[in-house]
Amino acid sequence: MIQLLEHFTYKKLIRFTIPTVAMMIFTSVYGVVDGLFVSNVAGSESFAGVNLIMPALMMLGSVGFMIGTGGSALVSKTIGEGNKKLTNRYFSMLIYFLVIASIVLAAIGILFIRQISELLGAEGEMVNICSVYGRTLLFALPFFMLQNCFQSFLVVAEKPAMGLGVSLAVGLTNMVLDFLFIYVFGLGVFGAALATGISQFIGAMIPIFYFARKNKSPLKLVKTKLELKPILKTCTNGSSEMVTNISMSLVNMLYNLQLVKYAGYDGVVAYGIIMYVGFIFVGTYLGYSVGVAPIIGYHYGAGNTDELKSLFKKSLILLSATAVILTACAEIFSSALAGIFVGYNKELHDMTTNAICLFALSYIISGINIFASAFFTALNNGLVSAIISFLRTLVFQVAFIFILPLLLDLNGIWLAVVGAEICSLIVSISFFVANRKKYKYV
């Protein structure tokens, strides 16, 4: 078993992060399967409805990402400082706080689901589709948030392989239930949401049972009270990831509104496919960043500047090489990827293929930007991380979503993310340079 305190060569770094990368990719794959069943069995209208309401659900679930990433940075630093008792106290109170917050947010979402659907552009029968799917998943929101949170903490616990195992169990459950509920029983979007909710329950409960018992990891759930200071510190540290997820959700809403204007609900379907496909490619960057963050946090807390320099350099090299490969794959297989979802409709297939080709140009850049945000979170600098995420996922994308279509029509919408990533890369490099002496990673 590789421990956080070790020196990480390229081989060891890849071995440690690959389970988290695989976990993120597999999580994306079972999300893709969900979309495949809805699109090919329930139809393109149901698929459009799912993609209209999904950003709102992800926005509510972003609190889980915030506590997971911000909390893992705080807990990793505490481990590096050698305070085991404080480590478990922080870890436990963050999980308990998340349970309370998730129940409150789920109740609010269930109460206003129809109004939210209409606000996102749904009309007529589309409102019912969005409401059924959204309400069902909101009942499982606490489990979804815990699952996301535990993905980060399992890495801190030096159990990335267990995180992968949990994701495999969740994914296989979801895919089997998708087949039963959608294809066999014909439950449509309700079946898709029910399958996802049950799988999220499994993804939350396995880690809870593990950490609640005596285990060999550095983390264990213990009795503790909620303390405001570490919770606020966690929220500050993880705010960048929360900002990222909320911004992505808001941007997705704007994409959908623009696409309804320029291409109707077919545009929403095409964008939904891009998102499903993109989850796999971007999931690689996210998985690496989540996997490497506890290592960075540990060595920062322990004052190991030489190891910090090594991790920074190796990460940039690995991500750059991966970016070239992933972008090439997306361009080469764009038609095949579109065909899996909408092969039954040539016009929609051609639109989606073109959209994937243009959108995929962003993959050559996005890996460095995602790592930059995670890197500063791991250094417990939530402000810089949040600024990078806020500009990348909201400010720049919103600007390009409205500007480029005026110049390039529908293609401008697909290229908006490329413009945003280029601007974000400039910001990321600027912060890397500005903070190099403070943290001594160069």
TrEMBL record:
Bilayer topology annotation: Multi-pass membrane protein
Keyword annotations from UniProtKB, A to Z: Antibiotic resistance, Cell membrane, Membrane, Transmembrane, Transmembrane helix, Transport
Cellular compartment(s): Cell membrane
Pfam families named among the record's database cross-references: MatE
InterPro entries per record: MATE_fam, MATE_MepA-like, MATE_MepA_subfamily, MdtK-like
Keyword field contains Cell membrane: yes
Membrane-spanning segments: 12-33, 53-75, 95-117, 137-157, 164-186, 192-212, 268-296, 316-344, 356-376, 382-406, 413-434
Entry keyword Hydrolase: no
Stated family: Belongs to the multi antimicrobial extrusion (MATE) (TC 2.A.66.1) family. MepA subfamily.
The protein's name: Multidrug export protein MepA
Lineage of the organism: Bacteria, Bacillati, Bacillota, Clostridia, Eubacteriales
